[in-house]
Design a protein that fits this description.
Blueprint lengths: L2 H24 L7 H17 L23 E3 L8 E3 L2 H15 L6 E7 L2 E8 L2 E7 L5 E3 L2 H5 L19 E9 L2 H13 L8 H9 L4 H5 L4 E11 L6 H11 L8 E3 L2 H14 L7 E8 L2 H7 L1 E2 L2 E2 L2 E5 L4 E13 L4 E13 L2 E7 L3 H7 L6 E5 L7 E5 L24 E2 L7 E3 L5 H12 L11 H9 L14 H6 L5 H13 L5 H7 L7 H11 L2 H5 L3 H5 L6 H12 L1 H13 L19 E5 L7 H10 L3 E3 L8 E4 L5 H9 L2 E4 H7 L3
Parallel strand pairs: 2-13, 21-22, 21-23, 23-24
Antiparallel strand pairs: 1-6, 3-9, 3-10, 4-5, 4-7, 7-8, 10-13, 11-12, 14-15, 14-17, 15-16, 15-20, 17-18, 19-20
The structure holds 2-(butylsulfanyl)adenosine.
Amino acid sequence: MDKDAALERIARLRDVIEYHNRRYYQQDDPEISDFEYDRLLRELQELEKIYPDENLASSPTQRVGAEPLSKFASFEHASPMLSLANAFSSEEIIDFDNRIKKMAAVEDISYVAEPKLDGLAVNLLYDNGRFIRGATRGDGITGEDVTQNLKTIADVPLQIKKSGFQPIPAFAEIRGEVYMEIESLRKFNRRRLDEGGEPFANPRNAAAGSLRQLDPRITARRPLNIFFYAVGRVEGVEFKDHWEVLQTLQFWGFPVNPLIRQARDIRECIQYFESMGQQRETLPYEIDGVVLKVNDLNLQAKLGAVSRNPRWALACKFPPMQVTTTINNIIVNVGRTGTITPVALMEPVNVGGVTVSRATLHNEDEIIKKDIRIGDTVVIQRAGDVIPEVVKVVMSKRTGSEKKFKMPTKCPECNSEVIRPEGEAAYRCINLSCPAQLKEHIRHFASRGGLDIEGLGEKISAQLFDARLVGDPADLYFLTKEKLLELDRHGEKSAQNLLNSLERSKNPPLNKFIFALGIRNVGEHIAKILEREFGSIEKLMSATIEELTAVHEIGTEIAANIVQFFSEPKNRLVMEKFRRAGVIPRKAEASAKDSPLRGISFVFTGTMESMPRSQAKAIVEALGASVHSTTTRKTTYVVAGSDPGSKLDKARSLGVTILDEKEFLNLIGR
Ligand code: IVH
């Protein structure tokens, strides 16, 4: 690139970044992913290194964010709130370490490694231990005074606790991140939608939008949390290293993330980065990377900062959870309840470490509201284990050649009528025997969240259905090797494997079984509640609308779906088939009152007529007992079937109670 072109590009990049700063900081409504923002910023930094010009001082690379909104009182930080340089790979992390080693002229640097929470940075002032004022970061020098709002967050200490560890400082700036947990956000968004409001796109926008409310009563109703991770100016207390800062904060009563670790060298930092990358999706809050900080505070001071970034700290970013891509086509998918869901087929992209090429568009209203068209460039995101979804269209990339999508009037699978029931957003295929629905039912039953039947994915489910071997999930348990061998793709071995997986799935946790049935609106969470409240499938099957709605979180709609499901003759038949096949769900984590056999130990010997040993084992375990293979003096019962063998003799010699099959069945109430 020649100089003129470079200067032009610099000017353009500055404009674009300023625009995105406003969207991010002032409107809490970013248009591009952090990843792309970082890329733009980097490009600008690189160009400015080669061609520094007279406008450098006002370039967005020299500032942290946008100026604070005028509606809040502005607040000058006692010491600047810096930002962090980013790294996107282990090579860049190693470069960072090498730079420091060179400057400090030492062998190994020890670090503190912290999860990088995706929320809003704040600075809290304490005067002789009392919380007096607090602000957002703003541009790093001046933020917005949000004292009243911060006071509504339960985890913000209003008074520093005395501890033997360190005295209470005369003055202190304590810094942390305000965030919203993913589950809280989901619940909150559901409520917003019910009330006709706009949901927040991600936890960070939710945290920012909630804290920056002029009316603190609104903030008070938002489920906000905070973790503290640094101090600014502190008077009257000396620290030697960052680890000590964090320990002290904890003693003083500030919540500090329990996943923060010390790392002896950069190798341990990289291990931490990788391990957090794996744990990321299991955490209750969103993190977008980890932060590494040189532990020694003297060394930190010596290293100093370049423009807005300290040289002693680094943000190591995970692959983004929000990225942009283009929509190649829109198709529809028929779900197990007949719902017709539009799905975007996209140019494959990596989102948070997973390649995705499909995103749900939910329903027609969503498509209209977001004005999504075939050919559009869109921002997509994947949060937790949620299916990717289109957040928004990048309107500035519209060319005019994009095509609008129309919902089909006939089911693409069975060609039946498609209707949109009144008051619902979804179109539905009304043919109860629509093959797409039946196949999807079977797949869902066997899926990971359901009975997790190994070897029974989408393809095999469809194959079994098409060959008329299976019409509903209960039929799976009546498959035989001979029948399976009729299917072209099935060899002896895979047939046996499938039969084994099916056998193993016969005593599923009750909540998994309830979920697997595929009752409308009964997801994993509701299934767990139903397990807890009803305890057995029989009780759930006979529950009335009143009994169901008496349960917290179960509304009339879900209750009606459950009652309707179990009163449908077809479904009752399926339930009866399950029973005959020996599919007996067990209640997980039985409470003391539901564990009549708690503390009792069994040994089984010989063959029982009424059930295989594996089933007997599952039943008594579900009732709180334990099962062992050898008899000792501590064994409570030895259950003897026919041809019992030497275990029976041993039981006799030890004086352990022996039950025959009938007595055993009696004991377990059958
Ligand atoms: S330290 C110089 N520690 O990341 C120290 N920041 O891009 C700067 N953040 O404004 C902050 N988790 O909003 C630090 N454990 C952590 C953090 C963290 C999240 C955010 C914070 C900060 C931004 C820097």
